[in-house]
Amino acid sequence: MKISFLLLFLIASNLTIVHGQPVIRIPEMAVPKLKAVDTRLKTETAIFKAQNSNPFALVAGGSKGIGFAIAEALALRRYNLILVARHHSPLVEAKKTLETKYNVQVEILSYDLSQRASAPAIAAWCIDNKIPLKMLCNVAGLGGANDYLKIPLDTLHYMVDLNVESCMSMSLLLLPLLEKNTPAFILNVGSMAGFGPIPSKNMYSATKSSVIFFSYNLRYQLKKKNISVSCLAPGPVFTKPSIKADTKKRLGFLGMEMAVPPAKVGEVAVRETLDGKMIIVPGTLAKVTSGFVRIMPRGLLASIYGNLGEEK
Predict the structure, then answer these.
(1) Taking the model in full, what pTM does it have?
(2) Residues 6 or more apart from 250 whose CB is under 8 A from it?
(3) Rounded mean pLDDT of the chain?
(4) Is the pLDDT at 65 greater than 70, yes or no?
């Protein structure tokens, strides 16, 4: 029983850092308003011309972290890319790196995916340019150390909009292009946090659970259309040095063993998506632990996570 509690503690703690940085307050008026396309990108994206006959994959949240790792794994397989992210500079750097290293075509679009107008604008650009889209990767998300009861309502709305609504909207609006390029694929990024209720991460685990269940349902709905849907549910991923240092300090050896490098997460995610796998959990220890969590009664999990997450 002590081992089981330790494994659960590792999951609960590591889920804080699965996707990077701590949650910060994002006032409603401070969230950047949608730009149709960043003016600095107009020369790169306003007039689209395919440079080769390779298929395209769109990676929402693809400028860094897990999103970039997925983009790199796709580029390795000769996929052209459309990278979408909120900030311009990381997109430019990602484009340069991928085009130079893999000799693929990379288009970049600056959008805040938490804004409801973003998905329709992105989809319109893709449809207008007749992009031969074969894979959609919904990676963008928000999580962190603070959650429900500790952060303001506008930040909670931002989390729901980014983690759930953008995924739902992008999947629906880009279906026409995916249907034209079957067999096609959708990869949604959930989290091990979505496998069970975690009171200290109420909204994060709830949104990631939504992504997992949405992916299961969508997979069934699109089966006859020859579009395969997968959901990546990783444990801890070190996307920057501070996360690694924090994990080592708080969780020691086992925490480090649970972690999987971003590049490996991206490679496993793309490989298993193309193989048609539904739930993807990179790393042996994370896979075994997630299987244990998924069969436990939800009430018991909530009680255990609640006790582990209580502030001393």
Answers:
(1) 0.82
(2) 13
(3) 83
(4) yes
